[in-house]
Specification:
The structure is a single chain. The protein is α/β, with parallel strands linked by helices. The chain has ten helices and 19 strands. The strands form four sheets. Strands 1, 2, 8, 9, 10, 11 and 19 form a seven-stranded mixed β-sheet that branches. It starts with a strand and ends with a helix. Bound molecules: flavin-adenine dinucleotide (FAD) and iron/sulfur cluster.
Length: about 525
């Protein structure tokens, strides 16, 4: 089959779905190719056993680590991509994240654009994804040209108490930015019902600001937009000069199909975008498409993260827990010369999901059941920046399968953040000996599998010898190929990546619209 479009977008997640949304109004013919299907709406969406213990919505993909050991990565192939399962904590990077930062393991490099270049796109992204937040509360945040479109999601009583205790202790807790369609002033008509099944679960009532709900669904039925599901892109073909992508090769229903367009944008997620480029090697691009710099697949990052349950005798009845953030350790402090990272909340622990983690209960209080522990836990998510180093890379083997070589960086900073959290917990009445490291991905016993925040495999820059993409996210070596997902990140900062991917897709979309006008 051969069809011609103006733009083909590969992948419908934060990058690709948002890009399609940005381009659709032009009336140009857009083809969105998505290897997954729509995520089924079913009661299992909100059931911890199928979601967390059985991994029902995780792809059956096999990737390999540097020793060739197979693992199942935490990737989600659906319309909307990883955002179908994400926690919708929609943070901006800090202005300093766009500059060079000294870390204990080395340098986090400067971006070719500044926070000021991104700021208008962050504002547009927050409007589109209806982010709830209170500007000005987080002392590390940059300036904003527009307020959040919605007020911050309120703390429930236990978290309000923790926030008050921390403020009394001299910390600066703030309301975390949340992408949920909650109208607290009109709960009966609110799309979001403020439930406990948000972080890591699909939203059964389509009230999460994910890329399907916000970006892709509103386009369905438009005459100029075609969405093909079950369409896995395996390869891109070019003309003999190697400057122009001429064909997008798709495997669909076991058949090989080829689609054609003037412009092609890859947004398959950092590992899969690298995979497509590496598997598209040709005489003109012997190391993989757009890979004359040998940078495709390198600089893979996915954050140093850990989930921590802090258990106190006081009950935690919180339902929606993701309302609090702390950035007091995001930058160097007077006690520590390196940045340690961001502290935020994760979805509330429940006994069913914890059962999959098989915790040693006697460690807490021998007489407590798992249900007791879950009822009393306050659950935290710690993020420290990992560095883009060339040896941390995605490669593909002779069969085209993904291999990820990765060595940790900045672990000392991450341990420091954990120590700071324990001090914080003392202020909030949760003694340090009741802190327990949880596994957000039960059943996944290798760290590489938790690749939710993967980024960096096609970094953008001004030097074609040291980057894959130019500042518009167009491949240096091709005239019509863009990469518009988290692959473009030259560094990852220590906040969640999706809003930056969304803002960048709007930015690149504007550039592509200008080019097509
Ligand atoms: C459990 C979980 C919680 C998270 N929580 C947060 C959070 O709270 N805040 C935050 O900012 N981020 C969060 N993230 C990360 C966030 O979801 C990602 O950073 C973001 O979705 C990345 O966008 P992307 O466009 O790069 O990739 P994705 O959103 O993953 O989109 C890639 C798309 O490409 C498709 N695809 C892949 N290969 C092919 C192919 N060969 N052909 C066609 N289609 C293909 C995939 O099916 C997918 O739809 C979370 C992620 C997970 C998994
Ligand atoms: S809290 Fe709201 S957005 Fe999140 S899963 Fe529940 S209903 Fe959906």
């Amino acid at each position: 089959m051969s069809e011609n479009y103006d733009v083909i977008i590969i992948g419908s997640g934060a990058g690709g779905g948002t890009l399609a949304h940005a381009l659709a109004k032009s009336g140009k013919r857009i083809l969105l190719l998505e290897r997954g299907d729509f995520l089924p709406r079913e009661m299992d969406n909100w059931d911890p056993k199928p979601v967390f213990v059985d991994g029902k919505y995780i792809s059956k993909d096999t990737w390999f680590d540097r020793d060739g050991k197979a693992f199942q990565p935490q990737v989600h192939y659906f319309v909307g991509g990883a955002t179908k399962l994400y926690g919708a904590a929609l943070y901006r990077l800090r202005p300093q994240d766009f500059e060079e930062i000294k870390h204990v393991s080395g340098i986090s490099p400067a971006w070719p654009l500044s926070f000021d270049d991104f700021e208008p796109w962050y504002s547009k992204a927050e409007q589109l994804y209806q982010v709830h937040g209170n500007g000005g509360e987080d002392p590390t945040e940059g300036h904003r040209s527009e307020p959040y479109p919605w007020p911050a999601v309120s703390h429930e009583p236990r978290l309000q108490q923790i926030s008050d205790d921390l403020a009394k202790g001299g910390y600066h807790p703030f309301h975390a930015p949340c992408g949920i369609l909650l109208d607290e002033a009109d709960r009966p008509r609110s799309t979001c019902i403020r439930c406990a099944w948000c972080d890591g679960y699909p939203c059964l009532v389509h009230a999460k600001s994910d890329a399907e709900v916000i970006a892709v669904r509103p386009l369905l039925g438009r005459p100029n937009v075609t969405l093909l599901t079950g369409a896995e892109v395996t390869k891109l073909e070019t003309d003999s000069s190697g400057r122009t992508v001429t064909g997008v090769v798709v495997s669909r229903n076991g058949e090989r199909e080829v689609y054609r367009s003037d412009i092609v944008a890859i947004s398959a997620g950092a590992a899969n975008s690298a995979k497509i480029l590496l598997n598209s090697a040709s005489d003109a691009h012997p190391n993989g498409l757009a890979n004359g710099s040998d940078q495709v697949g390198r600089n893979y990052m996915f954050h140093n993260s850990r989930t921590v349950a802090a258990v106190s005798t006081e009950k935690n009845d919180t339902i929606y827990q993701k309302t609090l953030g702390i950035n007091d350790f995001y930058f160097p402090t007077k006690d520590y010369e390196y940045p340690a990272g961001n502290i935020q909340m994760v979805g509330k622990s429940n006994a069913e999901a914890m059962r999959g983690e098989k915790p040693d209960l006697t460690w807490f209080a021998p007489e407590w059941s798992l249900t007791d522990v879950a009822k009393h836990s306050v659950d935290w998510w710690l993020t420290t920046e990992d560095l883009p180093i060339p040896e941390n890379r995605v490669t593909t083997d002779r069969d085209g399968q993904i291999h990820v070589a990765y060595a940790h960086t900045n672990l000392e900073e991450h341990d420091r953040l954990f120590e700071e959290l324990k001090k914080i917990l003392n202020h909030a009445g949760m003694a340090a000996h009741h802190v327990w490291r949880k596994n957000f991905y039960p059943g996944m016993d290798i760290a590489l599998a938790g690749c939710a925040h993967q980024a960096g495999t096609c970094r953008f820059g001004t030097d074609p010898a040291a980057s894959v993409l130019d500042v518009n996210c167009k491949a240096h070596e091709l005239d019509n190929l863009y990469v518009v997902d988290t692959s473009f990140f030259p560094s990852i900062g220590a906040v969640n990546p999706a809003l930056t991917a969304i803002a960048n897709a709007l930015r690149v979309g504007d550039h592509i619209l200008g080019r097509m006008a």
